[in-house]
Amino acid sequence: MFDLKILDLDPKLKNIYGKFEGADLEISNQLHRARGFRKIHLEIANLANNLEILHCVFFPDPRFDLPIFGIDVVCNSQEVSAAIVDLSPVSGSLPSTIESSLKNIPIDSFKKVRTLPEWGHVFSPYVCFVRPNDSLENKKFLKIVDQYLNILISYSFSIDGESAESPLTIERYKKQQTYCLQQKLNDKTRTVLARMFNPIWADYYIDMVLFNCPDISSD
């Protein structure tokens, strides 16, 4: 990726330690930015070595016509209980080049497909939300993740950004705001964080680290 840089993050938010139902919980965060992307967030949570959660989102700079890459994986000591990946549009639809590439990826070949939440309209028709059945399906999901990332990054190299004042930039800015606001409706995340710490801290973490609404320009 071009111009990859580390974003500043309060040290207290880089590595977070707490308790959840008596078990040790550790959360680690990394933030970067790059050409075309205002924020690249990687979060890994570990609960008493029995539950691990991977959360990663590539938030585009609204000046670029790029979708949001998002992945969440939840696994316990026996299995992956939930895995979701998507390239979510932040304009009226996905760029045609990206959509034509996604059409060739077999996301419907998993035995256990999970139901999207009520706010799932922010995702694309190519969202893959599954409960992998075995190690082969685990590998199949990871291959899909690689394909989605390769499609996104390759496309980001081929386009230029528009001005911050462009109507299309403003439209993408508003759509990305909607994506962030809808993601904040995930009560499971807020409940866990509130029980770990307190509701005020949970809202702060969600608003500032997980799904902060973007500025129109990342400059």
Describe the structure.
With 219 residues, the chain is α+β, with helices and mostly antiparallel strands. 34% of the residues lie in helices and 28% in strands. It contains six helices and eight strands. Strands 1, 2, 3, 4, 5, 6, 7 and 8 form an eight-stranded antiparallel β-sheet that branches. α5 packs across α6 (199-210). The longest helix is centred in the last third of the chain and has 24 residues, at 135-158. The model has no long low-confidence stretch (mean pLDDT 90).
Any descriptors?
219 residues; alpha+beta; eight-stranded antiparallel beta sheet
Q: Structural class, judged by helices and strands?
A: alpha+beta
Report how far apart the termini are.
17 Å
Tally of individual helices: 6
Order of helices and strands: EHEEEEEEHEHHHH
Give the total of beta strands: 8
Which term fits the overall shape?
globular
Secondary-structure map with pairings?
Blueprint: E1 5-6, H1 11-14, E2 15-20, E3 23-34, E4 37-47, E5 51-60, E6 68-76, E7 80-88, H2 96-102, E8 128-130, H3 135-158, H4 167-183, H5 187-196, H6 199-210
Summarize the structure.
The chain has 219 residues and is an alpha+beta fold.
